[in-house]
Amino acid sequence: xxxxxxxxxxxxxxxxxxxxxANDLKTVVDTPWKLVLGVxxxxxxAVAAAWEIIGTARSRxxxxxxxxxxxxxxxxxxKMLRTQEHCVISSxxxxxxxxxxxxxxxxxxxxxxxxxxxxxxxxLSSILTAAGAVAYYYxxxxxxxxxxxxxxxxxxxxxxxxxxxxxxxxHTIRTIDSKDDPAVHLAxxxxxxxxxxAMAEARSE
Length: 205
What we know:
CATH architecture of the largest domain: 2-Layer Sandwich
Oligomer: single chain
Structural class: alpha/beta
Shape: elongated
């Protein structure tokens, strides 16, 4: 982040210097087309620098630590899931779902915009599927995905994914919205693989 900021600031200052040193300042100000060109160049450079810095800041993962870690993660997930877009949630047991988050998921289930990917069914997943959600189960209590993810708009060009991974002292949520990032495609592939397996097992029963 700091490197990006410094790089963009250096580029911006270089443009400013080139404009000011190309001619004397009075000449630039007194010549309309030079003034317009100079201002335009400065504005473009400023916007490009701001865009790069904001983009870099948005791509940084959210890290949660301390005693209120669970509360902060819940707030983050609840805000993210309020979208009207279709969401695929891969979770081991949905144990993080409480309060407003439960209401949000029930609302998405009723609107048919919620799909669950879990090792096996539990009470909450049964409630959500009864409300209209779709659930695909891939294993049992002995096999669970190490990472959890929420895939939004799967299979579409505007798909994006939020990937969560926890350690003993920290939980990280990384949001990836670039279609060029392989993480989006990996999450989508994993979802489609689980769905295919679950549907094949359902047909064989």
